[in-house]
Every structure is written in C-alpha cells, then in structure tokens.
Amino acid sequence: MKFERAETLDREQVQREFLQRFATTFASLNADNLERLSQLYTDDVRFQDPLHEINGLPAVQAYFRELYSNVQDLDFQFYGFDQLYPGAGYLRWKMTYRHPRLNGGQSIEVQGCSHLLWRDKVYMHRDYFDAGALLYEHLPVMGRLIRWLKGRLA
Q1: Per the CB 3.0–4.6 Å rule, which of 51, 54, 113, 115 could disulfide with 126?
Q2: Which InterPro entries match (predicted)?
C-alpha cells in the first residue's frame, strides 16, 4: 500500500513539474527566442483563446511572431499550477502588456488561465480571459461604451 501511494505521489509531482517547466519556458519567451515554442508544443498543437483558433506549430509560431511585433512589453506571471489528471492541467496567470495604441501606451493587466493537455509536449492549449479587459475596453470609442455597459450591469 505504501509503495502505491509513493508511486502516485511521484506521478503527481512529475505532472506539477511539467506545468511549472511549461510556465517557466513560456514566461521566458520573447521576440528573439520563439524557436522555444517547439520545446513546448507538438507539431499538431491546437491553440485557442477568446479571439483566435490556431492549428499547428508553424501557425502558432507565426501568431506569436505577430504578437511580439505589435507590443512594446509582454510579461506573464504564473501563480497557479493545477493538475486535473495525468496529462491535463490548468495554469493561472497574469499577463501585463503595453501596446502603443491602447490605453495611451500604458500597461494593461489581464488575469486568465490556460487549460493544457499534453503527453511529452502540449497538444492542446486553450486560454480563458476577458477579451474586453484585454483589448476592447482600451479602444478609443468602443472602450468607453464597454466600460459604461459593464458599470450598468454590475
């Protein structure tokens, strides 16, 4: 019985370590090291967020190249590592970014989480976050309307 419990704990530790390694590598990404994406994702990865659905590593790499070319700063801080079962888990994070045409070029913070499925690498990555807080609230005309609506609904 003790051996089975130890084996289960070892597997759980391996899963947590996978999530932590993924988060560390992901947080270290920048415009100059996007080749590291191939360390994280399978060739046939499916990446989704509230604004995009991307299939395949080359398309994910192109997405991140475009993302990093459009922002001045982009930083991820991971603070939650939740394993669901072997090969599945969630990462909770805060993203901070600056875009010259949003929020007067000032930093924008967005909380979110990523649902990951993996074997040796991640083959499914789905992000959950408030697209309004990420983008729409910071657009000149639309932002005022969205903030007003959120205030009325609160």
Answers
A1: 115
A2: NTF2-like_dom_sf, SnoaL-like
